[in-house]
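INFO  loader      accepted 1 record
INFO  loader      residues=322
INFO  predictor   begin
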Amino acid sequence: YLSIMANYTNEWEKWWKNPDQVKLYQFMGKDNVPFHTVMFPCSLLGTDEEWTLLHHISTTEYLNYENMKFSKSRNIGVFGDDAKDTGIPVSVWRYYLISSRPETSDSIFTWKEFITRNNTELLANLGNFVNRVMKFVTAKYDSTIPSFSCDSESEQTLIKNINNLLTNYIEALESIKLRAGLEIAMEISRQGNGYLQESKLDNTLFANNPEKCASVIGVSINLIYLLSALFSPYMPSVTESIVRQLNAPLRNIPDTFTMDIEAGHQIGKAEYLFKRIDEKMAEEFSKKFAGESRDDKKTAKKNKKASKTANNVIATEVPKAD
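INFO  predictor   done
INFO  writer      dumping tokens
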């Protein structure tokens, strides 16, 4: 760890030899705990030098695959290259794995649940909230935030609820409860969807009650801006998409929910944050990553190579047309 940092920067001691100003957090599987809590700290202490020692360790139980254990030797489960080859965006993987993080007990990866969470949580909750508001601003306000007020009871109630959840979110992250933090961020997004439903945001509201409609849009746009910060530790590419759509800079996680995007601000072009995954793909993916032995895999590669060679031979033996 020290040599890697030293190769990265000559100022590595600002992190590793600065215990008064630096707190070391580590994340790992439970089987690595003895080394990182006993052997490695003892090695540092044995030098009689002042090192930054472990402050907090966050460990996980095991994540199993379907009804089996992940196994590289038997090719059971989904690994880095496999995840990339599915074509499923990295944000979906990050969301599912963190929301299923085995913090207190073993958890199970299943393709059915993976796809369901994408469709019913990411797409139907966060994706729907952001896209609905962005498209409404584009269509009804020429992509410009209208003058709005958040003084009415419904807006004040929402702001109060969001602030309570925001406090819980910050406490969860400070306590390294990553899964809980993500759940709270999704709950804040659900609050936004509920607010749109209760306010009945549609063409009728725009035509018959323009002041209320403007308030709903102004508060919702700022709630989306807040969500961009809350999801940044979990799905940074989603955050980048949101701030691009808002035409706003990246922001830090605030202590309270405030109206930082004001009237007259011009938003960008709406984008889809997530896409629906066909439920039928669950069975296909399950079969694809069910595993095979190393010998079977070598044989498959050998046959593929032989087939390719044969095709090349055949291709070279085809006579040219007169």
